[in-house]
Amino acid sequence: MIIKREMINHSTKMPMLYGDRMIHDLCLFIVENEECITRKAIIQAMRGTKIQLHVDIRYTKGSGIYNIFKEEDISHKIDVLIENHIVYEKYVHNLDYSFYMLKPYDEAYIIAKRRYYEIDETYNKYHHKEVLNDYECELIFHDMVKKDILETQDYLNIYQLCDNIQFYCFCKDEILHIFHECPENINKMLRMYYSIENDKMKRKILRQILKS
User: What is d(CA 57, CA 38) in angstroms, rounded to the nearest whole number?
Assistant: First the structure.
């Protein structure tokens, strides 16, 4: 059932949210499980941990890929959805239990179906070293790996795309496969990056790549 949200001007916010893959995956999961789903169950699904909710769960493509993120990181994204009137909390109460369910507004259905990028704009942003959204990173990455033989700079460019943690999450298997076959000089560079990196998330990514 689609419930229309209050009309609010999202002209600047919505493109940013459309380009956020975790926002997309959260919306899709909530839409697919709108009969009964809680914040805790959503977070557990996104991180790939056991869901402690006694209902049938419809898992989606984004389920389990965000285990590199903390629970509070995903909870914050849910707050963003609520603040932007994309989903809402519905209080359920009876004699046996009470809890809040997450329910979608009409915007959640749109985000769940849409990928936000323009091909020409994406390449222009990349060449001008502008920040790319999650889907733009994916587009550039898949273009990079079309080459028969990757050169040193190609590996470094792919690693730089991994600064976008959400992009890394949903392209993780492909990325790890590529670095599994990389030359030793690339591994040496990555080990050097790991030795000087202070960001915990980036260290996790480097550790996974080096173990691949």
Answer: 11
